[in-house]
Amino acid sequence: MKSFSILLILLSQGLLAQIGINSTTPAAMLDVTASSATAPSNTDGILIPRINSFPATNPTTAQSGMMVYLTTASGTNLPGFYYWDGSWVAVGSKTGWSVNGNSGTNETTDFIGTTDVKSLSFRMSNIPAGKIEKVGGSVYFGHSAGEAADPPNTMYCSAFGFWALKDNTGSFNTGIGTYALRNNSSGTYNSSLGYESLMQNTTGIQNTAMGASALYFNSTGIRNTAFGYRALRSNTTAERNTAVGTSALTANTTGYSNTAVGDGALAGNTTGIRNVGIGQSALLYNTVGWENIGIGWGALNVSTTSSYNVAIGSLCMVGNTTGGNNVAIGYGGLGNITTGTYNTAVGNYAGVALGGGVQNVTCIGNGSGFGTTVTNHINIGNGSVLWIGGQTNWGTFSDARTKDRISEEVKGLDFIKKLRPVTYHFNYDKEFALLNNGKKDTTAVYDGKYDIEKIKFSGFIAQEVEKAANESGYDFSGLVPPPDGKGAYTLRYAEFVVPLVKAMQEQQELIEKLEERIRRLEKQNTPDK
């Protein structure tokens, strides 16, 4: 009777196609209910067949989906649930990566990506945040990075950062950093590294920017190179500029073929072209000047509109504003020139005392040119120089075809007789103060600086020469008074030869007259034979 009852129950459940264990109202074909949902016992559950190893004979397709529990490791298979799918497959082995991390991975077989011929995309808040293109070889990582890419028209681009290369359709571009190359459209072969670097570039090509805001406003400019914070930041359409250093060429807009190396080098340049500034603040305020070269800290740093200057050395031509065609080589050379032109200085502090707008002055040697305030002067050496010379004498053009208003107004004996030849010793400090408006020499004392004071010179006193010339009514070119009345007198000793020749001629004439008179007297006093 008991067996009959069980059979009856099974038959009735089979007719209903549902079986319930601990349940009279099964909700599925097989419904196993715990003894207590709130306080289950340790025997509530289903035991899948447990095996120590997989069967020697594999199941058939009829058993696909059959499940077992492997109790001990079998080969490379670890204990756990397995099901048959043409081979024994661990339950969960084909599930997605855990958000809490994964373990037991195999780098040769486990990966995140695709197995078909498709690109791999990443999203954040359902917004594109990364993509590895199958066609075109481009790679993008960052919020909306490379969003407008159109492969295969957009090829071989790399973007890393928020909105990097966001609007890009050009190829061969690299943008690393937030907003890097953000507006680039069809520009190609651009490289950008840093926040907002090359951000406004649209069609410009072959530009390189490294540093926050480097080449920020560049739109169509080509072949520009900027390394440093805000380097070439304002550049728009200019081309072939090179800027290395914080704010180097930062204000440049359309100036082209400029080179700036150093913090603030050529920072103020806007439209000036073919300038070279190397060193901190070199050519700092140049705006529209052309073809200037400033090498050294602060070289030409206040020059604004001047052109064709060469300054090599720290603080060279540091005061120049609009003067052009000047050359200074050495620390502080031509330091006080402002508007002067065609001046040349070679040596530390050479021509540093030249002021304002003097022109065509040449100073060669350390500290040369002190006291020179007028144009068309050449200065060689400073007040310590003991000897200037060479194998031959200086030559002076003296062609009759180049001389006008020729006269014989040279004074001779009358002038020469008034001169007082003297010997004297030179005082270096007095001359320095005289040439520099009473300032003392603060430069370092070096070996031999005062050796000139040991020499006993022969010569004249310039003021006495001036007096003799005035008394003789002689405009003597060998005397050069200070142009402003404050500097030092100078004498051109070679020009004393001319009045000396005149004096000898006058003296010879007197001698010949005396000789003629003596002959007449001798003849008168000689008795006839």
TrEMBL record:
Pfam families: Peptidase_S74 (PF13884). Keywords: Signal. Residues 1-17 form the signal peptide. Residues 398-518 form the Peptidase S74 domain. This is Peptidase S74 domain-containing protein. It comes from Flavobacterium silvaticum.
